[in-house]
Amino acid sequence: MNIIIADASLATILFIPIVRVDTPINRDGDVEELNSTDGHFAIINNQKLMTISWDSIFPVGHSYNFIHRRALLNGWQYVDFLNLMKGLRLPIRLIITTEGTHRRLWNSLVSIEKFSYHLDATGDIAYSISLKEVPETIIDFILREVGVVRFIGSLANRSGRQEALRRLGLLR
Q1: Contacting residues for 84 by C-beta, under 8 A, at least 6 apart
Q2: Alpha helical stretches, state H, 75-145
């Protein structure tokens, strides 16, 4: 499994260095049960927002043979990016693909619900992160904020984002 995080404009694209293969993607349903004289009925409501959580490390100066080949070796760049996006209250784009076929499992905006980290004994950054899907329609609301518009507009142009997606194999 490959996990890629990016800002909303795709100006910054980061490959998560180490991903556990058993990282679950959660999408719960919302079913309401009703009892009537005719029996029990289930009313299927809208799905809940997708969530994903994992624990791993960001290497700091270590080139392990099991990290993603496009991952950064300075784990502080990941920490700085995630803290910046969380501090600005901006969603990030989360792209998850399968390892061999690059089948997209998830490609949406997410909020950083929880992000904690510390240095481990080897000097790498151990971290835990929880993300929750942000419906794309919320972006219309966010774009009304002048500061956010200026920030996103200053990052990259549309053709640059499309080229970045092509390089990742996510756009033909």
Answers
A1: none
A2: 75-87, 138-142
